[in-house]
Design a protein that fits this description.
This protein is of the alpha/beta class and 563 residues long. It contains 24 helices and 14 strands. The protein has 3 domains: 294 residues, FokI Restriction Endonuclease, Chain A, domain 1 (Alpha-Beta Complex); 41 residues, no CATH class; 199 residues, Restriction Endonuclease (3-Layer(aba) Sandwich), CATH 3.40.91. Helix content is 55%, strand content 9%.
């Protein structure tokens, strides 16, 4: 049972990505079903997770049990996918999410049932009477009413909607903020900081007045630290809200504008939800009834649960007549819809690839890299993966596979899951992994050094071909250069022998893209390989990693000229 101590909406932040939740829940079910959820099983779960093909890491080295609770007790339990009492079990909704055909539909139902307070999230003395809300439902209502919501509008205002009866008040605060932006042109960040700080001071005026400003996260009791901690939590809650709502398929994200809106073709479905889903929390103090309500895979009823509605959708997006469809069962109709949506997504991605290969998007790709560096995107790591995939696709004619996920409209949805390269390139005579990160400094070495090499070794084994790896970051840490230099000179069986890993600053990679654009003919995969071989061969003749990296910069800058 969690206690609602803050005076803002609480959104579960772990796992960060809904997609990553599914294999973790599956593992819990298949390995631990019927066992008691205690310190022993929690530690064993993390050990199994660390051995899996989809998870990156080993959990907290000092407290594996806590790591397990962080993965399972938060979103999987709060959203009704698992039941941990009296023993571990997968709920009806959990089975539909993990093993069913339409996980997004199930995820949407569970988000709509998530409520504050509940037997899982109870108020304390400071927050008593503050909560009466289904958070995701009301955020969806704000998006529909206001046409869009920015990240800043959610973190400052929408998180204050702890009671749905205050909906109009919050809506009007957002509208006033939008109007005020006109007076702060060129000073938007100042407006956000002032407005946000003022909102926190007002929300927690009693706490501040009593001097109880020390938070669980720190021993620092200063007002500055208190406000900073609240901002950090509110930023995390907003990020979770963005990601979870988007996974439902109803919500589109504008990365550059840092905003969410409802897909135009999903407005009817959203309106149905807003008109029919009860806004009131239910069974607030009755855990048995609440579980029965929460665990159901069929509630609340959605627009697409009506056969006639699905038929209407199919007639709009496919070449079907009502006569052809009327005799089919609902699930078959949904299958037809899903097939059409999947084919449309594949067609959109195919068109993207054709346009990319023609170099028609060269300027846009370069601009996107610059905007990523300038922190102009909501989910910069995702956009970095996506844009690098576009750049690699443009460079040569191999089969370039991005391991990030696309949404139904063919736009990037989530980064690659753990234990696989960000991008895999398959050529006729060699393969290549491409890894990207926005991490810098020592953190870059700690988080990327081993996984990059491991992913490289795994791809080399899978492909059975000579294999290379590009590691790209805005700035390459010297420790990373030294690490890959050593691996490239050392015969390590775990990585398939001597590695062939080439670190590149993003500016240098962009220079490669520029050179290929200006080249007299379309570069070939053999041109890429020639460059890689020159760099790797220099490892053995370089006195140290610094000399080698200087050569990388020189040679890559002159690619298609260097020989």
């Amino acid at each position: 049972m969690a206690v609602l101590r803050n005076k803002v909406l609480f959104f579960t932040t772990s796992p960060r990505s809904p997609q990553k939740m599914i294999p973790e829940i599956r593992l819990l079910h298949e390995k631990f079903e019927g066992k008691e959820w205690n310190a022993y099983s929690q530690e064993a779960f993390i050990d199994e997770l660390a051995k899996s093909s989809f998870f990156e890491g080993n959990g907290s080295p000092s407290d594996k049990a806590f790591s397990a609770r962080d993965r399972i007790n938060r979103a999987p339990k709060a959203l009704g996918f698992v039941d941990l009492q009296p023993s571990i079990s997968l709920t009806e909704a959990g089975k539909a999410l993990v093993y069913g055909k339409r996980p997004q539909e199930i995820f949407l139902r569970q988000l709509l049932k998530y409520q504050l307070p509940s037997p899982y999230h109870v108020e304390n003395g400071d927050t008593s009477g503050s909560f009466c809300v289904r958070p995701y439902l009301e955020i969806l209502r704000l998006v529909r009413t206001l046409e869009y919501l920015t990240f800043d509008e959610i973190k400052i205002f929408a998180l204050q909607l702890t009671d749905y009866h205050n909906f109009d008040t919050i809506k009007n605060m957002i509208l006033a903020f939008r109007k005020k932006k006109e007076d702060y042109r060129g000073k938007y960040k100042k407006l956000v900081d002032e407005t946000w700080t003022s909102a926190i001071k007002e929300l927690y005026s009693d706490t501040i007045a009593s001097g109880k400003t020390k938070t669980r996260e720190t021993t620092d009791a200063s007002l500055k630290k208190f406000i900073s901690t609240k901002k950090s939590n509110m930023r995390d809650y907003t990020d979770a809200c963005f990601r979870y709502l988007r996974y439902t398929g109803l919500i589109s994200i504008s990365h550059k504008n840092r905003s969410i809106s409802i897909f135009a073709d999903k407005i009817t479905e959203a309106d149905f939800i807003l008109a029919n889903v009860d806004r009131n929390p239910v069974f607030v103090t009755d855990s048995v009834q609440y579980k029965q309500h929460l665990f159901s895979k069929d509630t609340p009823v959605l627009y697409t649960d009506n056969k006639d509605n699905i038929i209407d959708i199919l007639m709009k997006i496919g070449s079907y007549t009502k006569r052809e469809l009327s005799g089919m069962e609902l699930e078959k109709l949904k299958d037809l819809r899903d097939d059409i949506v999947q084919r449309h997504k594949e067609a959109v991605i195919h068109e993207q690839v054709a346009e990319i290969k023609s170099y028609a998007l060269y300027s846009e790709i370069i601009d996107t890299f610059n905007e990523i560096i300038s922190d102009e995107y909501y989910d910069a790591p995702l956009m970095f993966e996506y844009n690098t995939w576009r750049a690699m696709t443009m460079l040569d004619g191999g089969d370039i596979k991005g391991n990030f996920k696309f949404d139904d409209s063919g736009q990037p949805l989530s980064t690659a899951q753990g234990n696989m390269p960000d991008i895999e390139c398959d050529y006729s005579d060699y393969s290549m992994s491409v890894e990207v990160t926005l991490q810098s400094g020592q953190r870059q070495y700690e988080t990327e050094g081993e996984p990059v090499a491991r992913h490289y070794g795994q791809l080399k084994k899978r492909s059975g071909k000579d294999t290379y790896c590009l590691f790209i970051a805005p700035n390459i840490n010297p420790a990373v250069v030294a690490h890959f230099f050593t691996l490239n000179r050392t015969n390590i069986s775990y990585y398939g022998g001597k590695s062939k890993i080439v670190p590149l600053d993003l500016d240098l990679f962009m220079k490669l893209v520029e050179n290929s654009y200006n080249y007299s003919t379309q570069p070939k995969s053999s041109d890429v390989r020639r460059l890689l071989d020159m760099i790797i061969n220099k490892v053995d003749t370089s006195e140290n990693e610094t000399e080698w990296y200087d050569y990388i910069q020189e040679c890559a800058s002159n690619w298609l000229v260097c020989s």
